[in-house]
């Protein structure tokens, strides 16, 4: 079955200034590499439905939504912190990015696809229930996972985050929620420098120092993630797919390459085949070296679609 490729034109219009690494060109780089690699004709392209208010409110506070609406500028930029800013198109892009995950869940649950990749921005995994941070406004992967649990009645879902940064917002939203198992590795210390020792047994979030070799990261996947994921037997997998742990990405100091992203993705696709009827929703998070990002997404999608 084809992999769905979901995006939305609004996602390209959000911009935080020409200096900012979280740029619209990231989506162009992904699209270009999918075309030049010959992958695009094998994907089922689809435009995201915009998220509904209730979908956002499953993980965010109503006051936070009102705050964002108040902050949204009519012209120019409005900074929310040192590296997170809004332009007039930010909120429409954020609603579309969140909606992409919901579109993916619906399509997969209706049997139209087994797997989906959402090429969306702004990214989401740093967004807290009531705070934008780290280029993120709405926590897209959390919104999609909560939707699958509540709207489709799934009992267990897994969230896997291989971005170089800690998915602090996602962890905060689901710690102690037994319906969710979250597995990640992340460079530490590094933004957002959150190490939450909450004792939550549903969090397998493994901090690693700078320059941890790819073999050690694969070992974390094989020895720490996979046994827990297999025992949990998720009914759907959600991937916070950040590609800033790439060797060529200077946002972090880890050394993953396309082959590693393909290998990690194959482990997850195999697990999904065992317990989740193959269902995987992957959503773009970080990844700022445009060439490495595009190539890595191609490798990731190739593995998602078992090509
Ligand atoms: Zn990141």
TrEMBL record:
It comes from the Bacteria. Pfam families: Hist_deacetyl (PF00850). GO terms for biological process: epigenetic regulation of gene expression. Residues 20-304 form the Histone deacetylase domain. Gene3D superfamilies: Histone deacetylase domain. Signal peptide: none annotated. One of its GO terms (molecular function) is histone deacetylase activity. Belongs to the histone deacetylase family. This is Acetoin utilization deacetylase AcuC-like enzyme.
